[in-house]
From TrEMBL:
<feature type="transmembrane region" description="Helical">
    <location>
        <begin position="21"/>
        <end position="45"/>
    </location>
</feature>
<protein>
    <submittedName>
        <fullName>DUF805 domain-containing protein</fullName>
    </submittedName>
</protein>
<feature type="transmembrane region" description="Helical">
    <location>
        <begin position="93"/>
        <end position="111"/>
    </location>
</feature>
<keyword id="KW-0472">Membrane</keyword>
<feature type="transmembrane region" description="Helical">
    <location>
        <begin position="60"/>
        <end position="81"/>
    </location>
</feature>
<keyword id="KW-0812">Transmembrane</keyword>
<dbReference type="InterPro" id="IPR008523">
    <property type="entry name" value="DUF805"/>
</dbReference>
<feature type="transmembrane region" description="Helical">
    <location>
        <begin position="137"/>
        <end position="159"/>
    </location>
</feature>
<keyword id="KW-1133">Transmembrane helix</keyword>
<dbReference type="Pfam" id="PF05656">
    <property type="entry name" value="DUF805"/>
</dbReference>
<dbReference type="GO" id="GO:0005886">
    <property type="term" value="C:plasma membrane"/>
</dbReference>
Length: 184
């Protein structure tokens, strides 16, 4: 076995490297966690709102879990980005580029697509991409363009319907104004 490859390290630590598929797989796991929290919230929040409508005073109890989940999400997003940057032999501080609107999107595309160093670099030996990471990573790769196509397929007809309805409302308003002018 090649001694220049890390056989075990924690994916939840900022130390070490992530290949492209590992990075995408761990981000997909983070997405699953977020979806699970969303489904859980869909069951819990309506019950909380019912108790609020019955006269109970609103509390921070509703918002504290959301804040905690948001902090966890941000933390691991940056941990995964730092590990991916280490694979590219770049400092983890570059992950702060995500904070710049629109530039962060292109930066994410870059770190998702750029090939990492094959051998040992400043941040250590390359990490072995586990089988489940390869599977989830490829699913993520397939889901990105598919979700973009589906979004466009839904958004364009919805926008066209909105424009059509807005034009009809505009015409109705003009007709109402004209009829009120004639009646005077």
């Amino acid at each position: 076995m090649n001694n220049n490859i890390q056989s075990s390290d924690s994916g939840l630590s900022a130390n070490g490297r992530f290949g492209r598929l590992s990075y995408l797989a761990w981000n997909m796991l983070l997405g699953f966690f977020l979806m699970f929290c969303g489904v859980l919230a869909a069951f819990i929040v309506p019950n909380m709102m019912t108790s609020l409508s019955s006269g109970a005073s609103p509390s921070l109890g509703i918002f504290i879990p959301i804040i905690i989940i948001y902090i966890i999400l941000i933390y691991f997003t940056y941990i995964f980005a730092i590990r991916r940057l280490h694979d590219l032999n770049k400092t983890g501080w570059l992950s702060l580029v995500f904070l710049i609107p629109l530039v962060g999107l292109f930066f994410w595309i870059y770190i998702s697509c750029a090939k990492g160093d094959e051998g040992v670099n400043t941040y250590g030996a390359p990490r072995i991409t586990r089988g489940w990471e390869k599977v989830l990573g490829w699913i993520y790769v397939i889901m990105i363009p598919l979700s973009l196509v589906l979004t466009v397929a839904v958004a364009i007809p919805a926008y066209q319907s909105y424009v059509k309805n807005a034009q009809m409302m505009q015409m109705q308003m003009e007709q109402m104004q004209q009829s009120s002018e004639y009646s005077e």
